[in-house]
Design brief:
The protein is an alpha/beta fold and 354 residues long. The protein is 30% helix and 16% strand. The longest helix has 20 residues, at 146-165. The radius of gyration is 19 Å and the shape is globular.
Amino acid sequence: MTTAFEPVHVAGATLSNRIALAPMTRSRAGQGGIATDLVAEYYTQRASAGLIISEGIQPSVVGQGYPFTPGLHSAEQVAAWRAVTDSVHAAGGRIFAQLMHSGRIGHPSLLPDGLVPVAPSAVAAQGQLFTGEGMKDFVTPHELTAAEVRQTVADYAQAARNAIEAGFDGVELHGANGYLIHQFLAPGSNLRTDEWGGPTENRIRFAVEVVKAVAAAIGAERTALRVSPGNTYNDISEPDAQPAYEALVEEIDGLGLAYLHVLEAGPEARETTLALRKQFSGPFVLNPATEGPTDHRALSLIEDGVADVLAFGALFLANPDLPERLRTEGPYNTPDPTTFFGGDARGYTDYPTR
């Protein structure tokens, strides 16, 4: 029986255990989307994880969706991240950069030079988000032209190259939680009638193109994808999601990716999780749906073969030494919701994506 504390081979390296730090938006970057000393301290404290997956990092200026989030599209940003990755590696950790283009989830007040959020279609998300000017309604995004779609794919690939230059061990593409890749996958936000919209084989095209472009840029063994089938977060409408994700996995499975990361939207998602687990031939990372913060009781998912690696979010914030606490089945510090929302003057921070 495999346990969570046995090594696993991922991205051409052997991870010391099967416990991952889930990617969580923190909104603690400095001016210009620069990772700071505080960012380095945060990740280094959690270097006992077999794998650290960073907070979402925008691959381009227009990809930013929240205040004070970091980027990987300038030389200054690359240099700042190098200090973070060097510190994590010195502590014995492994760290992937999560590339997150927020798409329509954003606001013009967060962007320079009159830019507005972009998306597969000019369909505004319902709801609001925090900005430096307070809560704002989501705006109707600019619908990407065909040329802009191709440029966005190229932006992901360049950001992936920048991530490797910055010392990351690999890149996870954020295709979950209602952000740009997910917006292309979901019929409620993708109303296109060209090669990127309409039937399933077209709606998965953008995700496939991004994965292949990044794999070509840095190697498939350093490229991973995160998805959340059926997740309605950020006003996503994705009924009967499983067939689309099975089609997506069929397209990317033969590439030899580092891993597939599934975020379960709820207990009802387990059937899809098991189907994708069976279908995907590489390492399978799971952020499981649980009652409250995920703890040692979820480790049976590794023992039962449901996943190769488990990603932990909220509990890892309150317990930087979480792998050891999982080994001893506690005690755990209780996550404080005030550190997730309104924890400091920048508004919500440490946003838990489980």
